[in-house]
Automatic annotation (TrEMBL):
The lineage of its organism: Bacteria, Thermotogati, Deinococcota, Deinococci, Thermales. The chain crosses the membrane at residues 6-21, 28-45, 105-123, 129-148, 205-223. Keywords: Carotenoid biosynthesis, Isomerase, Membrane, Transmembrane, Transmembrane helix. It is a multi-pass membrane protein. It comes from the Bacteria. Residues 2-87, 128-215 form the Lycopene cyclase domain. It comes from Thermus aquaticus (strain ATCC BAA-2747 / Y51MC23). This is Geranylgeranyl-diphosphate geranylgeranyl-transferase. Pathway: Carotenoid biosynthesis.
Length: 232
């Protein structure tokens, strides 16, 4: 199986099904903008990982490369937010009132500590490199999201949890299949801790968790009327 065939089998069918059976998003611009934000934000990070050899792709499994990254990888960064967002539409429901403002402080502070941990792991390098890159690059996004609307996210916790967990579990399965069964891409043992679940590295699991969490939190905030009032 090639990387493009992976998209055709595992990503496009559930995405099209969710879009076909769901009405228009409450704010269509947010749903359509999220993939572009994900692509722009993740592209430098992903190119650096491939450049360092944290992960890579065997010859014959990709069509072409732009920089260090295959075209299909850029396509994935567009499709994943669309898939996760389409599922979130089914789960969100009506926006609840915001909770105590303390959640904004506590949540922002927690993710700031996670970002600091990521920087420390980057300084250590070696087996901590992949984990450090994930924490240091994505935790600052969560700092901003929680400092701005942590109370709204806590109040909307059911779609936050389910909207993150369900696509994450699905992408864990597809990633496991791509790595262990098809060899579409590989993860370096040199830059990972060696902890895995049935052959799926811990860092890969955390990557899908964090990317889905960023999408879900971003969309919930964009769809909440109180968040828009705060921007104004």
């Amino acid at each position: 199986m090639t990387y493009l065939e992976f998209h055709l089998v595992f990503i496009l069918p559930p995405l099209l099904l969710l879009l076909w059976t769901r009405p228009r998003p409450p704010r269509l611009w947010a749903y359509l903008l999220m993939p572009l934000i994900a692509l722009l934000y993740t592209t430098p990070w992903d190119n650096y990982l491939v450049y360092r050899g944290v992960w890579g792709y065997p010859e014959g499994r990709v069509l072409l490369r732009i920089g260090y990254v295959p075209l299909e990888e850029y396509l994935f960064f567009l499709l994943q937010p669309l898939l996760t967002g389409a599922l979130l539409l089914r789960l969100a429901g009506a926006p609840p009132p915001g909770g105590p403002g303390l959640f904004r402080v506590v949540g922002g502070g927690f993710w700031l500590l996670v970002a600091a941990l990521g920087v420390m792991l980057l300084a250590l390098g070696g087996e901590y490199l992949y984990l450090g890159l994930i924490l240091a690059y994505f935790a600052p996004v969560f700092v901003l999201q929680w400092a701005f609307g942590g109370d709204l996210l806590v109040a909307w916790r059911k779609p936050l949890l389910l909207g993150t967990a369900l696509p994450t579990l699905y992408l864990w399965f597809t990633d496991f299949y791509a790595i262990t069964r098809e060899g579409i891409w590989w993860i370096s043992k040199e830059y990972t801790l060696g902890l895995d679940l049935a052959g799926l590295p811990l860092e890969e699991m955390l990557f899908f968790l964090f990317t889905n969490l960023a999408v879900v939190q971003g969309l919930l905030l964009a769809w909440h009327p109180e968040a828009l009032r705060r921007l104004k």
